Each structure stands twice: as structure tokens, then as C-alpha cells.
Amino acid sequence: MGLLDILLGRTKPAAPDLDRLFALPSAAVTLEAATGFTPTGHGAVCFATVEGAAFEQTHREVRALMDADAEREGPPVELRKDDYGYSWLVSRRSPEQLPLLVNDLHAVNSSMEINGFGPQLLCSLAGFRDPEPRRLALVYLYKRGTFYPFAPLPGPRQRRDNALELQVRAALAGELPVEADLGRWFPLWGAPGL
User: Fold this and answer.
1) Known InterPro entries for this protein (predicted)?
2) Where are the domains of the chain?
């Protein structure tokens, strides 16, 4: 960072730290104790849509890596596009396999990063639910290295449970690096994996 950056108040963005994803299993224990939310076993990695042979090769590598896992039931990783034009690599595990799901998310992010698609990575999420049943995602912002909760309310209108999100933020403050800027808690309407 140069003198001009300091004078103009610019800050250097935090470098992505994919190892922060490994804090999710212990944070899930705290989340369940504080709010009653448990893992669904579903998660996803979101990125700006990429076309071409290089991405297809990366996707094949990720699928081969996930296919090698003998404990997986069902499809390894599914590629889906959302209504906003973003792509999602979705992984499904049983609810008690959150550590394996986190390994999947880390492997997908790492493969994309190693193959030059790091700038396209946007976020990763792990899904949770409670007995009511309400849905919740813990979202990892790739470019910020932070997490935030997203709790969509049921129904046809796109609304979120802000009180629950703030409750989750308070419960996980010591477990995960929570995004301080609430303006970056982007809604992920219709996100696969949630």
C-alpha cells in the first residue's frame, strides 16, 4: 500500500483464507446450543459464470476428487445456475457429515483458485435448519475472508429474518470471523444448497 492509498483512505482488501472454512464444524456446535439450528448436510460454492474448456477441465477434476470419496451418497457435486446468472457447485452429505461437507467446499474453492478462477469465486455456504423448520445459511465471503448468517423467511415474498441473523452473529462472534459491515450481508434468494 502506497502513500497515496493512505492519504485517500484506501485499504488493502483481506486475502482469502480458505482454512477459515474448517471452523464451521465447531461453530455448528455453538450454533445448535444457542439457537437449535443443526446442519442440513447441504452446501455450495458460488462463482461468476465461467465458460470454456479450462473451467470444464476444473469441473471434471472436482467431480473426480469427490467421486473418490467412498462415504458419499448420491451425486458428488452438481453444477447449477441461479436466476441471477451465477453458477453454483452444490455438495450434499448427510447432516452429521458437516466436516466432510466443509472438506468438499474447501476442495472446490481450492481447485477453482489453483486453476486460475479465484477472481470469479464469490461465496460458499453451509445450510442449517431448526425444528420449526426455519432455514439458515452460514455464508463465507471469499474475497473478505468473513462469514455472515442469512435467514430467509418462508413464503412467496423475499424477506429475511433479521432478528435471527443478529442472534446468530452474537452467538458465533467468538467462533467465526463475522463480517462487520452489515451492508455486505447479501441475500442469497433461491441459493442452491440452502
Assistant:
1) PspAB-like (IPR054383)
2) 15-182
DSSP-derived letter for residue 117 is I
Nearest Cα to Cα of residue 122 among 49, 174, 25: 49
- Asked whether 139 and 150 are in contact (CB, 8 A), the reply is yes
- Calpha distance 128→138 (Å, rounded): 8
**Cβ atoms 34, 55 nearer than 8 A:** no
Q: How far apart are CA 104 and CA 110, in angstroms?
A: 10
User: Is the per-residue pLDDT at 133 higher than 80?
Assistant: yes
Residue 144 in this model has a pLDDT that exceeds 90:
yes
Burial 25-56 (b: 16+ CB within 10 A, else e): bebbebbeeebebbbbbbbbbbbeebeeeebe
- pLDDT of 14 over the 60 cut: no
Asked if the model's pLDDT at residue 81 lies above 60, the reply is yes
What's the Cα-to-Cα distance from 50 to each of 23, 72, 76, 188, rounded to whole Å?
29, 27, 20, 19
The span from the CA of 126 to the CA of 149, in Å, is 10
Residue 37 to residue 167: CA distance in whole angstroms: 12
Three-state secondary structure along 22-76?
HHHHHHHHHHHHHHCCEEEEEEEEEEECCCCHHHHHHHHHHHHHHHCCCCCCCCC
pLDDT at 194: 85
